[in-house]
């Protein structure tokens, strides 16, 4: 699911970027999309072959890319797919956090990481009147996120009946290892595809 959203996002960014500024190198396009040059080249060739982009040569061995009418239609379809996939991902995340938070209602819960997933978990906890004790974010300078205290050091958390919920897709293995090394349990949502 997450890979599909990222794929749609890259394609959308490519079409948007070329629609705004058509005279640029593949290198600048790859940097703008934050992808490898070879991947950007492959995607541009694929879009040209499908008739979504048009290529014309510019001076000094440069090329100009133009979004065709079919490209604008594809862009509209991609926007629709992106919104649909994002909502599906949101629903899946909400459902998993809801199930786990209801199960842990009597325990002290600490969320791990600050991200959009944290916001979803906090929203679910508020809907079901479940108290979140804190958010753990290593080396964080933020003291409060969505009205929940942020702790940057696991040593500040007392060894009591605490359960951690992973709410970030960054440094998954490091976060899990660190929390488990401190003797705590951690819930990792299925949608993060962690084995």
User: Which runs of at least 5 residues are low in confidence (pLDDT < 50)?
Assistant: none
- The outline comes out as elongated
How many domains is the backbone divided into?
2
Count the E strands: 8
CATH-scheme architecture of the largest domain: 3-Layer(aba) Sandwich
Distance between the termini: 16 Å
Summarize the helix and strand pattern as letters: HHHEEHEHEEEEHE
Count of helices?
A: 6
What structural class do the secondary elements suggest? alpha/beta
Instruction: Give the neighbour order of strands across the main sheet.
Output: 5-6-4-3-7-8
CATH topology of the largest domain: Rossmann fold
Kindly provide the name of the CATH class of the largest domain.
Alpha Beta
- Rg over CA atoms: 22 Å
Mean pLDDT reading: 85
Query: What quaternary form is this?
Result: single chain
Strand portion:
15-25%
Fraction of residues in H or I helices: 40-55%
Task: Summarize the structure in words.
By secondary structure, the chain is of the alpha/beta class. It has two domains: 2-85, Winged helix-like DNA-binding domain superfamily/Winged helix DNA-binding domain (Arc Repressor Mutant, subunit A, Orthogonal Bundle); 104-192, Rossmann fold (3-Layer(aba) Sandwich). It is 50% helix and 18% strand. It contains six helices and eight strands, in the order H-H-H-E-E-H-E-H-E-E-E-E-H-E. It has helices at 2-20, 26-33, 37-49, 69-103, 116-127, 172-181, and strands at residues 53-58, 62-67, 108-112, 132-136, 144-145, 148-151, 162-166, 185-187. Strands 5-6-4-3-7-8 form a six-stranded mixed β-sheet, with helices on both faces. A two-stranded antiparallel sheet has the order 1-2. A hairpin with a 3-residue loop joins strand 1 and strand 2 (62-67). The radius of gyration is 22 Å and the shape is elongated. The model has no long low-confidence stretch (mean pLDDT 85).
């Amino acid at each position: 699911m997450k890979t599909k959203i990222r794929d749609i996002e890259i394609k959308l960014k490519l079409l948007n970027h070329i629609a705004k500024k058509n005279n640029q190198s593949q290198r600048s396009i790859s940097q703008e999309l934050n992808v490898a040059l070879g991947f950007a080249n492959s995607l541009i060739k694929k879009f040209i072959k499908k008739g979504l982009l048009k290529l014309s040569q510019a001076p000094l061995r440069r090329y100009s890319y133009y979004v065709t009418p079919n490209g604008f239609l594809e862009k509209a379809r991609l926007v629709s797919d992106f919104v649909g996939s994002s909502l599906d991902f949101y629903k899946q995340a909400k459902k998993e956090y809801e199930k786990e938070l209801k199960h842990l209602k009597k325990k002290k819960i600490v969320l791990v990481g600050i991200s959009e997933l944290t916001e979803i978990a906090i929203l679910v906890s508020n809907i079901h009147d479940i108290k979140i004790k804190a958010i753990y974010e290593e080396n964080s300078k933020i003291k409060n996120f969505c009205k929940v205290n942020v702790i940057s050091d696991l040593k500040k958390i007392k060894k009591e009946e605490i359960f951690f919920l992973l709410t970030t897709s960054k440094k998954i293995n490091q976060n899990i290892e660190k929390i488990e090394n401190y003797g705590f349990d951690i819930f990792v949502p299925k949608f993060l595809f962690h084995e």
